[in-house]
Amino acid sequence: MQTENILEIEDLKISFNLRDGTVNAVNGVSFSVRPGEVLGVVGESGSGKSLTARAIMNLLPRAADVTGGRVRFRKGDGTVLDILKEKRESATMRALRGGSIGMIFQEPMTALSPVHSIGKQIMTTLNLHTDLSKKAQVDRAAELLDLVQMPKPMEMLKKYPHQLSGGMRQRAMIAMALSCNPSLLLADEPTTALDVTTEAQILDLIMSLQDKMNMAVLFITHNFGVVAEIADRVTVMYLGNDVETASVDDIFYAPKHPYTRALLKSIPRLDGQKKHRLQTIEGMVPDPFNLPSGCVFHTRCTEALSGRCEISAPEPTHFDNAQMARCHLHQDQPGPVA
Amino acid sequence: MNTYNLPDDALVSVENLQMHFPIHKGWLGGKTGAVKAVDDVTFHIRQGETLGIVGESGSGKSTTARAILRALEPTGGTIRFKGPDGNWNDITHKSDDELRELRRYMQMIFQDPYSSLNPRMTLEQLVGEPMVNHGITNKAEIRDRVAYLLRQVGLRPETMSRYPHAFSGGQRQRIGIARALALNPTFVAADESVSALDVSVAAQTINLLQDLQDELDLTYLFITHDLSMVEHISDRIGVMYAGRLVELADTDSFFQRPRHPYSEALLSAIPIPDPRRAREKKRNVVKGEVADPANLPKGCAFAGRCPYATALCTEQQPELRKVGEGRFARCHHADELELKGTTA
């Protein structure tokens, strides 16, 4: 594992054996996260982004098989942990989840327990991972709620999730995820269910906390606007493949994969140019039971090379600026291509 | 009652619409208050235009749409709809029987393409159902029309005998659109119709809606929380906050210079898919939370979060008033404020 990375995912493959056949939901995904950076993972539904996040926590659905690859995480003391080699319920994994790796989810109402107060839930995490006294736990919990800018933290400790608004619940969940000063925060669509003004508040909060605590963030979303605002680097996923990884500027201003280009063209922009038609990606996301041969995007790609893209899956091409694209268009041309 | 003059080409008129839901509490279930889901909302929609209504959850935008289509009976105000004969019909308190004939001209497309289609009906039954309901009995005629509609929304007519589960989210939304178009409506309300779809599929659906509008001369009420979508599709925009319409303007001037502080806050909160602009942008994130429509403050509902609020704002509820050609804002200070848009 490279020394500058905190998390490395290498050729990860996850499949489901179902009655109707095998679904290769994640099909050779590789990316890495450096300490203190925000990696945005974007993709449409079914691209395997959430499943990849669950693999990092070693919390895959029981029906899922890891058929290849590995996930390695560098702990605070510098030792490297091969996460998928650990047992799901092992002491090491349990210490890691909520300890060095915090996680926030899309729907705080289902992620929080409805029958325990916010304070109780934060203190349970503290109890598992620290040896603070009861009194110190209460103080720490209030301090955390203050950190996520909840008004009147001492009173908030006694509240139950149903008494809070969506934005407040998401703050409570962030407080819980941060309770043990994680070095990596996994955020799976944490603002998707929120209104824009609340979303802006939560994004600002995550960014300021990330800065303050110098933690790495893996931010999963389908919203390119959110990615542009918070990510340092971006991985674009399509049908279980990481099709492109680059710095946020390269993704937006010099995308190298036709899928990234097509997606960027299809989002409406506030640029004052009225009534132009939105560009679309032809066709639909293919049936996961029958993935296309070769490059999975070739059926919808406007730049597909016949005789090539439908035959073999492209290997990743690495460019000088640390950009990576999995596309045949770049295979024979070493060096950056516009 | 007429607060402003309706233009000749108006198709739908909403005046002082009010939709209050009673709150019952206690052992005897006595009425203790009301949720003012929609309060004093006035606007009209012109023939052939798209009016976008934006607002956050709980702002009353869906309730407004449902009241216009008379899925709800308003507790106050007037809703009028111009029939195909050119006459205005006051539909505010009409019974379902009386509405039946008019209903074929006003249709709705829903948000969730998974729960809005009956899983036990085939496409033919789903899309044909409105026709059966309106007395068309000839099977062959229905079948032809269903095939025509499916082709129109970009689905293959051969799939007519299949059930909704065989289709993806985007395709189901197309089925919902075909169903809404079955009776040749003049007015279609789309309530968050693309919110549940992926980026590329949402773009296809938006293009389809625009094509259909050109082809069939449809009038849309487009309800969404997504401002970039609304900028793309709408001719005019209405902004709702805590049950009230706080601003009404044509799209271009709205994005150049909003006239209500809440509109400015909304515009500044949209994440823009452009990293360089995102870094330059100074965001003034509004603090606090949306006002509770069951317990609205005495003055302006936005005053508590508004950076420009004065003593007047907490004391007195502002009226929706004209602030320019075709522009209305519900703000005491709309004239003196220089608010920032996104395209100026």
Quick structural summary:
Chain A is of the alpha/beta class and 338 residues long.
Tell me about this structure.
- The complex is a heterodimer of chains A (338) and B (344).
- Chain A has 11 helices and 12 strands.
- Chain A has 338 residues and is of the alpha/beta class.
- Chain A starts with 6 loop residues before the first strand and ends in a 13-residue tail after the last strand.
- In chain B, α3 packs parallel to α5, α4 crosses α5 and α5 packs parallel to α6.
- Chain B has 11 helices and 12 strands.
- The interface between A and B is large, with 45 and 47 residues.
What is this structure's SSE topology?
The complex is a heterodimer of chains A (338) and B (344).
Chain A: E1 7-18, E2 21-33, E3 38-43, H1 49-56, E4 64-74, E5 80-82, H2 91-96, E6 101-104, H3 108-111, H4 118-129, H5 134-147, H6 153-156, H7 166-177, E7 184-188, H8 196-213, E8 216-221, H9 224-230, E9 233-238, E10 241-247, H10 248-253, H11 258-266, E11 317-318, E12 324-325
Parallel strand pairs in A: 3-8, 3-9, 6-7, 7-8
Antiparallel strand pairs in A: 1-2, 1-4, 4-5, 9-10, 10-12, 11-12
Chain B: E1 10-25, E2 30-46, E3 50-54, H1 61-68, E4 76-82, E5 88-90, H2 96-103, E6 106-109, H3 123-133, H4 139-152, H5 169-181, E7 187-191, H6 199-216, E8 219-224, H7 227-233, E9 236-241, E10 244-250, H8 251-256, H9 261-269, H10 275-280, H11 311-315, E11 321-324, E12 327-329
Parallel strand pairs in B: 3-8, 3-9, 6-7, 7-8
Antiparallel strand pairs in B: 1-2, 1-4, 4-5, 9-10, 10-12, 11-12
Helix pairs in contact in B: 3-4, 3-5, 4-5, 5-6
Distance between the termini of chain B: 37 Å
Task: State the end-to-end distance of chain A.
Answer: 31 Å
Strand order of the largest sheet of chain A: 6-7-8-3-9-10-12-11
Tally of individual helices of chain B: 11
Profile the largest sheet of chain A. 8 strands, mixed
Element string of chain B (H = helix, E = strand)? EEEHEEHEHHHEHEHEEHHHHEE
Average pLDDT of chain B works out at 90
Q: Strand percentage of chain A, roughly?
A: 15-25%
Largest sheet of chain B: 8 strands, mixed
Helix % of chain A is 25-40%
What is the subunit arrangement here? heterodimer
